[in-house]
Every structure is written in C-alpha cells, then in structure tokens.
Amino acid sequence: MEPRDSDEKRPLVVVISGPSGVGKDAIISQMKKLAVPGRYIVTATTRPKRPGEIDGRDYCFFDQVEFDRMIEAGQLLEHACVYGNYYGVPLPPVEAAIKKGSDVFIKVDVQGAETIKSKLPGSLLIFIAPPSYEELKRRLEKRLTESAEALKRRLNAAAEEMKKLPFFNHSVVNDRIDMVVADIIDIVAEEKRRRSG
C-alpha cells in the first residue's frame, strides 16, 4: 500500500490537516471543483449531520455500532474520538486508489495526520494554518455550530495543534481559498518532481 519514494509512478498520499475551523472542507471542495486529479477520501464520522451536509459527499455518517464494527474489521486507516464524536479514514478506498495509481487526498485533524504518517511514512503532510488566532475564532463563531464551551475547547486545541507544525512537510496559510489550492497544487507537483529525480 505504501508509495515508494524511489518510484515516481507511485501515487502520493496527500494529507490536508490543521485546526478545526481553518477551512479544510472549503479547500477540498474547491480542489474538487477545479478537478484537481486524485481520489478524495470521505471521512467517516459518528457526529450528527450539519445543515446542508450530504451523506457520502461531506462525510459518511454512521452510528456508533457501525463505526465500532469498522474499527474491529480493520477498515479504518486511522480513527479518533474528537470533541465527543468519532472520525475515521476508510481504508478500502485509499487502497483502491493507490492500486489504480491515483493520488489520494485525505482531510484529517492533526492527530489523524500523525497516525497516517506513522502507517504511511511516504505521505505528504500539508498543514493549513489560519491567518491569525483571532481570524480562526471569527470563523468558528460564524459557523454557529458550537456552544460557547465547545468553541473554547476548539480554540484551546487549535493553540496546541499549531505547535505540531514542524511535524508537517509544508504549511499554507488559509487567507484566500484560491491561493491555498494553488499552493497545494504546486506542492504536490514539486513533490512528484523531487521523487522522480
């Protein structure tokens, strides 16, 4: 399953990560709109659907029993309990994409990125950073999906997650979605050139 650094024909596993509210979903959505080639893995979760979300497009929604069954069957590349809900990266579509030679884009939290790197050392980890702590707070407040206590927890977690930045191969500040996506495309292209050289 692991892409080998020495073989440029092998696909890249690209992990997009960063604090909650930094815009990971919007970035992935824009990459899909621009038809950036690759397989976009939809995260599995036990959290309730937010307004406007579609099962299988935004997330794959499962109850706890189904999620536990996937863990036991070894069907998740990584999983974790975050803010009281479980999230995980389904393994079968990752393996299928790699087998077909497609790059894989995975969106996870910082903890998930660390787990994936430990299992797939050749993964390319990109940290999405907010322009500032204040801007991150504004984005989370604007989302209106958090209680005051949950918002505080997420902001405290974000401060800790920012300390993990050196663990990542690259970091990109999300000031404008179009610029972030352009940066990610450039990073992936440069990594492919590096690995083929």
- What is the CATH homology-level superfamily? P-loop containing nucleotide triphosphate hydrolases
Number of DSSP helical runs: 7
Runs in which pLDDT lies below 50 for 5 or more consecutive residues are 2-8
Based on Cα principal axes, name the global outline. Answer: globular
What string, H for helix and E for strand, traces the elements in order?
EHEEEHEEHEHEHHEH
- Global mean pLDDT: 89
Largest sheet: 5 strands, parallel
SSE diagram, text form:
Blueprint lengths: L12 E5 L6 H10 L5 E3 L2 E2 L14 E2 L2 H9 L3 E7 L2 E6 H10 L3 E4 L2 H10 L4 E6 L3 H11 L4 H15 L7 E4 L3 H20 L1
Parallel strand pairs: 1-7, 1-8, 2-7, 3-4, 8-9
Antiparallel strand pairs: 3-6, 5-6
Helix pairs in contact: 1-7, 5-6
Write a short abstract of this structure.
The protein is an alpha/beta fold.
Keywords:
197 residues; 4-stranded mixed sheet; alpha/beta; Rossmann fold; single chain; 5-stranded parallel sheet
Description:
The protein is an alpha/beta fold and 197 residues long. The protein has a single domain (13-196), classed as P-loop containing nucleotide triphosphate hydrolases (Rossmann fold), CATH 3.40.50. The protein contains 7 helices and 9 strands. Strand 5 and strand 6 (85-90) form a beta hairpin. Helix 1 (24-33) packs across helix 7 and helix 5 runs antiparallel to helix 6. It is globular, with a radius of gyration of 16 Å. Mean pLDDT is 89; it is low at 2-8.
